[in-house]
Amino acid sequence: MKSSVYLTSFLLCLLLNGNETCRPQIGTLLEGLLKFIQEGVKFSEEEPPDTKNLLREYDFIVVGAGSAGSVVANRLSEISDWNVLLIEAGRKENYIMDIPLPAHWWSLTDANWHYKTVPNGKSCLSLKHEQCLFHRGKVMGGSSTINFMASTRGNRRNYDHWRDLGNPGWGYDDVLPYFLKSEKITIPELANDTKYHSASGELTVSYAPYRTQLADAFVQGGSELGYNIIDYNGATQIGFSYLQSTTKPGTRMSASRAFLHPIRNRKNFHVTKGSLVTKILIDPITKIAFGVEFLRDDKKYVVRARKEVILSAGAINSPQLLMLSGIGPTEHLKELNIHLIKDLKVGYNFMDHPVLPTVTFLANANSFITLEVLTNVSGLEDYLLYHRGPFSVPGTAEGIAFINTTDPNNPNIDPNIEIFFLSACISSDPFFNTFLGYTEELYNTVYRPIENVHCYTPIPVVLQPKSRGRITLKSADPHEKPLIHHNFYENPEDLETHLQAIKFALNLGKTQAFQNLSAKLHNIPVPACSNLTFSSDDYWRCAAKQTAVSVWHYSGTCKMGNSSDPDAVVDPRLKVYGVKGLRVIDASIMPMIPAAHTNVPSIMVGEKGADLVKEDWGLIPLSG
Ligand SMILES: Cc1cc2nc3c(=O)[nH]c(=O)nc-3n(C[C@H](O)[C@H](O)[C@H](O)COP(=O)(O)OP(=O)(O)OC[C@H]3O[C@@H](n4cnc5c(N)ncnc54)[C@H](O)[C@@H]3O)c2cc1C
Ligand SMILES: *[C@@H]1O[C@H](CO)[C@@H](O)[C@H](O)[C@H]1NC(C)=O
Ligand SMILES: *[C@@H]1O[C@H](CO)[C@@H](O)[C@H](O)[C@H]1NC(C)=O
Ligand SMILES: *[C@@H]1O[C@H](CO)[C@@H](O)[C@H](O)[C@H]1NC(C)=O
Ligand SMILES: *[C@@H]1O[C@H](CO)[C@@H](O)[C@H](O)[C@H]1NC(C)=O
Ligand SMILES: *[C@@H]1O[C@H](CO)[C@@H](O)[C@H](O)[C@H]1NC(C)=O
Ligand SMILES: *[C@@H]1O[C@H](CO)[C@@H](O)[C@H](O)[C@H]1NC(C)=O
Question: Where is the signal peptide (predicted)?
Fold first, then answer.
């Protein structure tokens, strides 16, 4: 089949050389693909092109076309009297990124900022140079274009907590309408639950049109352990479920595809890609933000904002840009000779979910082994013609369980851990290890022996970590990567919670549902822990410190809080304290990380943030 040759050669080029070099091949690839794709089943509509002639001044400048920024740009440019410029450092979303199964491959291209953590001696110990790889989208759609597409919101308690911390308007009943506003549910058995789901938004949420036996075992195993099979985006969160994903059945629905493709013809909406914002321009006397500086093709541009600059650069780059512009901790900015505009605790309160992808099971059931999937001609054909079959599964992830290990039998409580279920393991794909970054020693010892063996990974996740990290600048040069002090396990309680999550995952493997598939814990120990009794508590504590990594849910670094909160960077209307005409609208404002993968919550922040802007400019009545 010709298209498979195109596909394979293109993917190899992409992985070996990065996105940019392979662009010329896209035409050839698409030619091959299009032969097989009938009219009407195209991957997606066109994204908005780069605007040829930028203006000197816009009403609003939005920095970052990621999960939140895409929504903000869409909702603000609904107002035809306002013009909006969206500035994105990354480039065009590649059609190939719409294919869900190899989600992790896109992090190996230049659609990623390629950040690494500062070693903390307590985690990421079996990673190359003790550094975890902190992936972050640098492309239209931001991280939603390279993520695993899990669609989760968190629970009532998460958002009521935000409100109770001093943020009126952010309780669950306040934010639920915004989750509904974005959503276009395509799952028939959930669509009728109109209290929690909506079919009228832009962001399609679906089940994958293909399931392995392992996915069924996961849900049945949960049932055997006494858990309900639930809609985790509904009334309660405790239980097991197949994965709800931000996909239009079988293809990725990035935030750009959902919110920017449909508005590509709006006259009052301009986009500039490949454009790195280096500074927010703020008058040092009046403290009014009046524009931004950015670099495109090594040329410097200055664009002014009549009304507001909105920072949606994500939880690593939004604090970086604030600090580069003089907003941040006095001492730190002084060290770097950055002129201080406003002393705020920018970059503090970094939160993320540590996960352990090295809890590996072998099973006698089909899992996603890349070589098998790629050589399954009927699978490829099924995908190209109908967007179904193995390629339609997001990053091999098929299920989610949310559990509270302190009160496991109570279905009406909030979870402290998650099991994120992948029907694959680190040896299933030659690029998983490149994506995660473990040492050669670890890979060769533990995973090389099980290449091409069917396996699955019930990834234990700590949902409410107590450790806090921090983002700082390495220098005042905007090209220099910021320093990420992730601080996993800094608070030892997180390690103990992780241990409980690991034990839960191990018990799940003992259920009849999995035993029917001859599930067996892969028992080659992590080399650095091999002197401990395999699978003892101490073994797992050691394995977690060696091999737990990020699931890339960075949040909290421009914390939202009221005026009595000394750690707050933005107020509950997302305005930066002490500066006029400047807001942050993205995952950095979250005062607490929700018990959720953070894409849909970031989109919600974008929806709600856009409404706050409209209210403040008198366009819609204040909601109180
Ligand atoms: C590999 C991976 C897998 C993930 N899996 C999931 C998942 O399955 N489910 C889920 O819910 N979440 C997942 N996440 C997390 C989720 O995607 C993010 O939390 C979410 O996208 C964050 O949204 P944001 O708007 O805050 O930032 P982003 O989406 O990261 O957007 C920020 C944008 O700003 C741009 N930008 C930054 N600095 C500048 C600058 N100086 N100038 C111009 N532009 C700039 C960036 O290029 C980017 O496009 C994953 C993330 C990664 C990386
Ligand atoms: C800020 O929020 C806290 C917690 O809800 C509350 O105690 C305090 O009074 C609030 N302060 C202001 C100025 O609103
Ligand atoms: C929605 O429909 C399903 C059957 O498809 C049913 O089981 C469920 O109870 C309904 N939910 C609501 C809220 O009506
Ligand atoms: C190959 O693809 C077909 C069609 O999508 C699918 O039914 C089958 O399960 C796949 N086989 C494997 C081993 O993945
Ligand atoms: C888990 O259960 C305990 C005990 O009932 C409860 O105190 C806690 O709030 C629940 N949720 C979390 C996130 O720990
Ligand atoms: C396990 O397999 C047996 C025999 O095929 C079957 O009867 C039983 O229903 C299966 N149990 C589960 C939980 O899948
Ligand atoms: C096991 O080895 C690690 C380092 O390899 C060491 O830190 C630890 O003390 C050892 N534990 C025991 C019980 O020997």
Answer: 1-21
454 is catalytic: no
Residue 37: pLDDT above 60? Answer: no
- What is the reported pLDDT for 14? 58
Q: Which atom of ligand 3 is nearest to the CA of 195?
A: 13
- Is there a catalytic annotation at residue 485? no
- Of all protein residues, the one whose alpha carbon is nearest to atom 31 of ligand 1 is 66
CB 68 within 8 A of CB 604: no
pTM comes to 0.94
Atom of ligand 1 nearest to the CA of 68: 25
pLDDT in tens, 344-369: 999 999 999 999 999 999 999 999 99
What angle, 0 to 180 degrees and rounded to 10, lies between the N-to-C axes of helices 156-164 and 172-182? 130
Position 80: which residue type? S
Q: Which residues contact 351 (CB under 8 A, 6 or more apart)?
A: 465, 468, 469, 553, 554, 555, 556, 590, 592, 593
Confidence of residue 1 (pLDDT cuts 50, 70, 90): very low
Among the bound ligands, the one closest to the CA of 402 = 5
Give mean pLDDT, residues 243-258: 96
Please give the distance, rounded to the nearest whole angstrom, from the Cα atom of residue 377 to the centre of ligand 3: 38
* Span from the CA of 304 to the centroid of ligand 5 (angstroms): 48
